[in-house]
Structures are given as C-alpha cells and as structure tokens.
Amino acid sequence: MSVARIAVVGGDGIGTEVTAQARKVIDAVLPGVDYNEYDLGARLYHRTGEVLPQPVQDELAGHDAILLGAIGDPSVPPGILERGLLLRLRFDFDQYVNLRPSKLWPGTTSPLSGVKAGEIDMVVVREGTEGLYVGAGGVLHKNTPAEIATEESLNTRHGVERVIRDAFARAQRRDRRHVTLVHKTNVLAHAGNLWSRAFAAVAAEFPEVTTEYQHIDAASMFMVSNPQRFDVVVTDNLFGDILTDIAAAVTGGIGMAASGSVNPERKYPSTFEPVHGSAPDIAGKGIADPAAAILSAALLLEHLGKLDEARRVTEAVAAEVASRAPGAPLRTAEVGDRVASAL
Amino acid sequence: MSVARIAVVGGDGIGTEVTAQARKVIDAVLPGVDYNEYDLGARLYHRTGEVLPQPVQDELAGHDAILLGAIGDPSVPPGILERGLLLRLRFDFDQYVNLRPSKLWPGTTSPLSGVKAGEIDMVVVREGTEGLYVGAGGVLHKNTPAEIATEESLNTRHGVERVIRDAFARAQRRDRRHVTLVHKTNVLAHAGNLWSRAFAAVAAEFPEVTTEYQHIDAASMFMVSNPQRFDVVVTDNLFGDILTDIAAAVTGGIGMAASGSVNPERKYPSTFEPVHGSAPDIAGKGIADPAAAILSAALLLEHLGKLDEARRVTEAVAAEVASRAPGAPLRTAEVGDRVASAL
Ligand SMILES: CC(C)[C@H](C(=O)O)[C@@H](O)C(=O)O
Ligand SMILES: CC(C)[C@H](C(=O)O)[C@@H](O)C(=O)O
Questions:
Q1: What does the record give as EC number (chains A, B) (predicted)?
Q2: Are the CB atoms for B236 and B244 separated by under 8 Å?
C-alpha cells in the first residue's frame, strides 16, 4: 500500500516545472508516495473546451491531496480556468480553510524599511467556500442605460463558525496565540454581525487565545505599517484574497508564498499550490523559483499528518533561500536538487 | 453676498481642532466665506439618540460644501455614526465621486525603502453611492445553526459609468494621463463585466488617456511593491475603501491623507474631510496635525472652482510639512497659523 496518493496538476506555464521539484522533495522525506499526473489548464481547455471533466474530478476525489502548480494563460479569457478549476475544487471539495502563511525568511527582503527577517510571521486563515465567491448575482437590462449587475455575499453560521474554529485551533498551537478577526462590520452590518457573533462564541472555547478585531481597511494599512502585530488572521473569502496578497508583498513578494485550500476533515482532498501564477514570460526556461511550490508541499505533508517531514522540508527551503547570493541566477531543477539532497 | 457657504461639522475628538485650522487657512486665501457650524457626532447622539436630524440635513443641503473633521467615539457602537452620518451624506447628497489623492510629500517618509518624495503621486477615484455600501442584505434564522447573512453589491450602468467618466476627465488633466481600473472580474463576473464594459466605452471617449486593468488582489500588492506605477485609479466603493488605506500607508500614513465625497454637478453639497479618525487619545491636547484637514480644504476650494487658491493652500501645507524637524512636537493651532500666514 502506498503511503499517500497525490494528484499532481502542474497546469500552465512554470506550473509543471515547479511541481516537479516539489515532488522530488516529497520523495526525499516520504518515499513511497503514489502520484498521478493530470493535464489540466489552458492546453486541455483549448483542445476540448472543458476545464475539469467530471471523470477527472471523480478521480481527483480518490486522492489524499492535490499538488497544483499554476493555472492560467493569456490565451484563455480571464475567469474561465479560475472559476472552472480552482474555485470548483474549493467548492466541490469543501475546502473551507484557505491557508496562507506569510513569513519574512532570512535571505528575503521586505520592501518595508527596517523590518528584519523573522519579524513577520503570520498565517491568514481565509474562508474558502462562501462570501462573494459563490457566484450569486446577475445582470438585468444588459447594455442599456438601465443595466444593473449584482453580486451577493452569502455567509452561513455553519461556514463562518467552522473556519473561525480552525483559526483558533491553529492559534492555540502557536507561540503568540493571538487571533485577529478582519471584516467591515461598520458597513457590512448583516454579515459583519454574523462573523462577530460567531467569533465571540468560538473565542469563549479558547480562553488561552487573545483576540482583536480590525476593519479590512485598517488591517490593510497595518499590513504595511506594522505587519509584526499579526499572528493568526481569520477573515472572509474576498478580504482574505486581498490581505494575503498584501501579506505576501510585505514579506518580499510571492516568491515564498505557499497556500493550501484545505478540507480539514479530509473527507475530500485538499489542494496545495504556490500563490504565484503561471508566469508565461519565463515558462520553459528552467529559471522559475520552486521555493513557494516546495513550501506548499510542506503544507501538504503537514495536512497528511507528516509533521516532522513538513518541518524538515520547510527548514531546508529556508536554508536554501538564505544561502543564495543576492541577484545570482537560479535554475529550477538545481534548487529542487539542493533542497532534496539536504534532506 | 458671500463668496461661498460652507457647513462645518467638526465632529468628535480632534475633529473640531483640525477643522478650525482649515477654516483659518480658507479665510487666508478666500475672504468672505460664510460658515455655519453644526454639532454632529457622538455628543448629539448621546443627547438625543439622533445622528443626522432631518432639519439639519435640510440646512446642510443649502451649503456649497461641507468641511468635516472626524466622526466616531468609542462610546458609540460601531457603525451608527458612520452609517447615519458619513454614508447618509454620501448617498443622500449623491456624492458619487469619492476622491482620495495620495502623494509622497517632501518631509514625509514612506515605510517602503528606497521610495523618495515625489515618486508616488496618484489619485484614487472611488465610487461612493453603490456597491456593497448600499446596505442591501439581511439575516435569516439568527442565532440558530441554520443562520445565513447576506450582503448584496448593487452596480448600475448609470452609477458605474459616471464615476469612470469622472476618473478619465481627471486623468486627462494630469501629466501621465493613465487610468487603472481595479476590480475582481475573474470572480465577481457579473459586476466585473459591467465595470469592464463601461470602462471600455468611456475609454473610447478619451483617446489620449492610456488604460490598464488590475485585479484588486494584484493592485493591493502593487500598492506595496510598486506604487509609482499608479496615476488615476478608478474602482468600486469597497475596493476603493481598501486601496486608499494602503495608498495612505505607503505615503507615510494618514497624516497627509485628504478626501472629498463629491457630487461633481454641485446639485448637492460635497463633503471634504481628512481620512484620519477622531483620535480620542490625543483629543483636546492641541497636538493633532491639521495637515490632512487643510489639504481637504484645498480639495474643497478646487471643487468650488477656486483652482489657484487650492493650489496655493496645497503648496503652503507641503512647505510647512517639509520644514518640520523630524520628531519635533507639533501644536495644532501653530501649524494652522504658519500655513495661513504663508499665504
Ligand atoms: C485566481 C483567483 C480566482 C484566486 C482567488 O481569487 O481566490 C487567486 O487570486 C487566489 O488568491 O487564489
Ligand atoms: C467610516 C467608514 C464608513 C468609511 C468607509 O468605509 O467608507 C471610512 O472607512 C472611509 O474610508 O471613509
């Protein structure tokens, strides 16, 4: 029997190049994994018009986790691959915890002056299956002066409470044990009130965790003026999308930004992918940095309960990045080899 | 006959202190303005339970503009004053252009390393009367496991097109003549499509203005990694709320952040106010920096067609700020006096 079944969706552009390195590194710490590669993304879409055929989705469902590279190509109209693949996996596989750690690693530089490696260390727990991402909305009187377009944010007690509980459980395991709720309760009064009440209820279950509330606009500002203040942040789908990109920016860009779209109960497979895109401009050249993909593999290992393996991979990537000479050219495969052989 | 009728709503905390300086400066460049002071904010709310009594609103409607200090106090539940006063003025007075310039002034320091004064100079034109701010939504099955809360974003062709046209007209008058549309078209497909089509249609009317589109998450990242790239940004109500706070953060915080909630047709009065809050911790001490309030007064003058006066006030504030010794204590009234006497 294999130790784990992992579906690999390299995807577009540099996606396949970086997942190859992530596989290499997983093999170095956890031999015996079964991989199945799926060719999804722009190529499949152009060939068949399909993004995620039902039989493929059914096969994916039989895996323990999905390792994803990057999806997206300028040749495909925006939204099609994102909604048809990434969001469909999040919704159909109930990946309600969208996990985005941000750390300022030694060897990386923050654009913020005076912020030193180690000082920023947070994880944003973004809701992944509700909010404005549900696609509820429509258009009336299109292309007339009377046109109206709507988007509806749907928030359930069920969906909000479970992601908040996940955030508190993570905070409980961290040094600072602090959770910040980010919303816009002064304007989005209905959803804000639900989030606030659910937050207060869950907080009562975790007396050792300290809490704080910030409006999304203030939180975005603090991400720049004082990102050190954040430990665990929990927020809705759209606010999380924005906040995690600011968090990535202040920790030196998306080069080290890993993410997981997680179904914590493991009823469905979770997806792990670097935050960066398919970078068509450098695709095929073997010069993409696989660090974020390998760190995403570490999140995958952690999700499968391989805590020690996950920690070792993360440390090996950190060491590799810290050892880089500033501005030196980088070969994708060599980075993967160095990290794998250090393990 | 007076040259202009300005309603002054000092509001809470440091609000009254900073608007007093803004009045002083307006008087120095434009003698003969008629002022009426209105005591709105936490005090009125506690005394009467009202936030904006209808007779007061009717009186405000008779003014050319409203100079506002700050609204908000910890003693009032969040949302009440914001929705009852600030948002009510924006909606009832059809202030659909929410104007937020961000500039890195000499004498101020960006938290971004290597970014020098003068390099960041943008204006965000945020829609002010639609989107998720309309308050459409509700709660079902409150306090049960079946609870659901919704928020609806409403976007009309009418509302979207007029604010985009305003943004292009502003860009046309600027050196770089560039407009960036920010939205999330890959996820918010209905509203995103309306915004994109309206943007393309208006762009065709301004052949000299170059354009660009960015998703809100990418734009938030660029605000940190490369804010220099922005000239005019046009976006919806909520994205604008977030982006302008990031823009303020990268230009050294809200100390110099001015704003206008503008009805360009001047059918209703427009509101001008600093982005900062009421700062209860330093209220009454005479140490609040009135720079943002005075810069807001400059936006007010510009709105009234007093372009030369507006420019002179802006330059005088810039000179005052540039002349400050780093870390030196500051007296609110002295800053106002210095700016006024320089004019
Ligand atoms: C590609 C897009 C649909 C996606 C999102 O908005 O969630 C991306 O920005 C992300 O953060 O994973
Ligand atoms: C106070 C609040 C309602 C307001 C907003 O969200 O618009 C504020 O954040 C602003 O930016 O003017």
A1: 1.1.1.85
A2: no
The residue type of B280 is P
The pLDDT of residue A326 is 82
Q: Is B59 helix (H, G, I), strand (E, B) or coil?
A: helix
A156 contacts B148? CB cut-off 8 A: yes
**Alpha-carbon torsion, ordered B282, B284, B289, B291, to 10 deg:** 140
SS3 B20: helix
**What separation in angstroms does the CA of B232 have from each of A297, B163, B210?**
40, 12, 10
**Which residues' Cβ are closer than 6 Å to ligand 1?**
A 82, 86-87, 241; B 186-187, 217
> Could you report the per-residue pLDDT of B56-69, keeping only the tens digit for each?
999 999 999 999 99
- Residue A191 to residue B137, Cβ atoms within 8 A: yes
The catalytic residue among A92, A241, A268, A337 is: A241
Candidates A114, A194, A245; nearest CB to B217: A245
**Mutational pocket test of ligand 2: of B66, B76, B82, B239, the residue with most ligand atoms within 8 Å of the beta carbon:** B82
Q: What is the CATH number of the domain that holds A248?
A: 3.40.718.10
Helices (H) and strands (E) in chain A, counts: 12, 12
CA neighbor of A64 nearest in space, from A40, A42, A87, A32? A32
Which parts of chain A register pLDDT below 50? none
Contact B191 A151 (CB under 8 A): yes
Same domain, B104 and B199: yes
- Is A253 or B322 the better-scoring residue by pLDDT? B322
Q: What is the pLDDT of residue B326?
A: 82
Domain closes at, from B214, B229, B256: B256
Q: Are residues B49 and B80 in the same domain?
A: yes
The tokens describing B42, both together, are 């936490």
Ligand 2 contacts CB of residue A150 (under 6 A):
no
Containing structural domain, residue B189: 99-256
Q: pLDDT over 90 for what percent of chain B?
A: 95
- The active-site residue, picked from B133, B166, B231, B289, is B133
**Treating both helix axes as pointing N-terminal to C-terminal, what angle do B15-29 and B291-303 enclose, rounded to 10 degrees?**
50
Q: Nearest Cα to A199, choosing from A245, A168, A225?
A: A168
SS3 of A183, please?
strand
Token pair belonging to A310: 């996950």
